[in-house]
Amino acid sequence: MKKIINTENAPAAIGPYSQANLANGVLYISGQIPVDPATGKLVEGIEKETHQVMKNLEAILTEAGMTFKNVVKATIFLKSMDDFAVMNDIYASYLDAESYPARETVQVSCLPKNVDIEISMIAHQD
Which terms does the record give in the GO molecular function aspect (predicted)? Predict the structure, then answer.
């Protein structure tokens, strides 16, 4: 059975989707962009954007009773691969080196609201 996960500590969906769905112990988190849920405004600059995206993901994981240690897969979309090194360092700072998820990072031509980064994740309950 599917359970919709929703928290006010992450940005509300801006389309016909849920922040996350939990099905059979697997949490599918929709792509998060750098919107500050407290203000509803975008943060700017790849450093601030990456931190905000990771905080949004963390809020959804927390709502589902999980942490980044539960994440098994991440997909990262960047507007420019020139931002990869900065993003990668910040991304890694939120994770436990003993439990890094599988991941791919791709450059795309455009993202919602013209942001520089979007990350989606899949996590599994222990």
Answer: deaminase activity
How far from chain centre, in Å, is Cα 67? Answer: 12
pTM of the model: 0.96
State pLDDT tens for residues 69-85.
999 999 999 999 999 99
The secondary structure of the chain, three-state, reads CEEEECCCCCCCCCCCCCCEEEECCEEEEEEECCECCCCCCECCCHHHHHHHHHHHHHHHHHHCCCCHHHEEEEEEEECCHHHHHHHHHHHHHCCCHHHCCEEEEEECCCCHHHCCEEEEEEEECC
